[in-house]
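Lab channel / #folding
Pinned by the channel admin:
"Please post every new chain as: sequence first, then the structure tokens as a reply. Keep commentary short and put observations after the output so the thread stays searchable."

First post following the new format, from NK:
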Amino acid sequence: FCWVDLETTDVPTAKAFYAGLFGWEMEDLPSGETTYTMCRLRGKDVAAIYPGPGPGRPQYPPHWNSYIAVTDLDFATSQAKGLGASMIAEPFDVMDTGRMAVIQDATGAVVNLWEPKPFSGARLVNEVGAWSWNELVTPDIEGAKAFYAALLGWDAADVPAGFPRASFTLGRFLIGGVHVPTKGEGEASRWEVSFRVADVDAIAELARDLGGQIQFPPMDIPVGRFSVIRDPTGAALTITAFPAGPVRGVDGS
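Reply from TO:
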């Protein structure tokens, strides 16, 4: 994974919320007929916010997008189709920054494929206030393992938990996770995005003060503590604290 951005119907409200929640600095960048707001922490790109959906795109509620880097976008999308994926948006140029496509994987989860030209993604990850994890929620965990193994060469290893869950790796690099929906999560397949915080309970309360909602209250997990919240525009995100340091190193290991 190389990048995350928020597609929302209320950009001003989202900008105010995330600036207050994570201390992000915002810069509006013209992007064709719309504006792409770059979010930065200590001057480094961490995420973005933009109004959606764009022309010809499905009407999805506000949500966070996950981007996967590929070296050859046309080849990757062709392979994805052969593996049972549906195309939401065929490969297209994003000005002079890169090329992207939007696919719905074989389990039904939407994910973006990105070929850098030259924008390669986030400049700060796995630190407090920055993006730190991607987790696929799907009833078809075996289908997900097979799809991403064939498309991207990811290996999957089952992880001990109270419900079916696995981690994705690429060589020595930890890519993300996948689990079947738990009670209250909903059955729809989707990629979820997590951000690291210093104190989950405090940030969850801050999110509520800023107009957000707490979907899953703070709870302990083997590596720390997490909560699922919704921003004021309705987009869900996970906040996680790792007392012993991030699960995934800055280099992805």
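NK: Residues 11-22 form the longest helix (12 residues).
TO: also worth noting, The chain has a mean pLDDT of 93.
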